[in-house]
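ARCHIVE CARD
Drawer: 12
Card no.: 0347
Subject: one protein chain, sequence and derived structure
Cross-reference: see card 0346
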Amino acid sequence: MAGAGVSGLSGPGAPGEVALSARGVSVAYGSGDTAVHALRGVDVDVPRGRWLSLMGPSGSGKTTLLQVMSGLATPSTGTVTLVGRGRTQPPVVLSSASERERTLLRRTRIGVVVQDFNLVPVLTVADNIMLPQRLAGKKIDKQYYSALIERLGLGGRLKHLPHQLSGGQKQRVAIARAVLGRPDIIVADEPTGALDSEAGAEVLTLFRQLVDEGNTLAMVTHDEQAAGRGDVIVRLRDGQIVGHAQVTQPGRTAAGTAGTAGAAGAAGFAGAAGDAL
């Protein structure tokens, strides 16, 4: 178990364990000769307390894989397991859970961050952050909430509505919402895609700090530099994993990794994530 960081935002895991495991995952749309295969027999583990970046060209399957990891979609074949942490949070096979069960898990154990923020426009910043926990009937940990707000620099914005925020501020609200429930894993699809370079860099730095404090992140990106802020890079092409490498130095990708970065494919994930709450 990771010790508390200086901000009090330590995550629920320790390196060396697995937070989420996918085995033999295939996703096909249609059947027979006209079937479109988005994923083909993918095996991947997301290490607990680590940052895994998913990369690949448009149509490679990276966004579909993230949807399956978050329970926003179910595989045609294969299993996706939220590994859990003992008696209090037992393993859950996401791929066989009901839609209602998966929705509850996204409110309690899977934090979702998307490119277009997915904030409720009529709710204040504070209410947006607390919404999933309230919907799940969970009591807000006020000390943790206060530490999170301070870390994200949102203290002066809690009564603001989303339209009164910059893009970077909106994404920080979305991250606070995803992290408040101390999830097993945070999944993020192109979280910097709608931001300018400065705001995007701030979001990546925040993710790096959260992961260093024990949180677990799986992130889709088309940006090599963004992927290099993580610990592991997995590359997909044509629905299959074609490269898997540890990041050897901060801010740089590991040498010899197969595949090339492509255009963002976040639209499908962002649309599905409307059901995340």
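Annotation on reverse: The first strand starts at residue 18 and ends at 29. The chain has one domain: 18-28+36-246.
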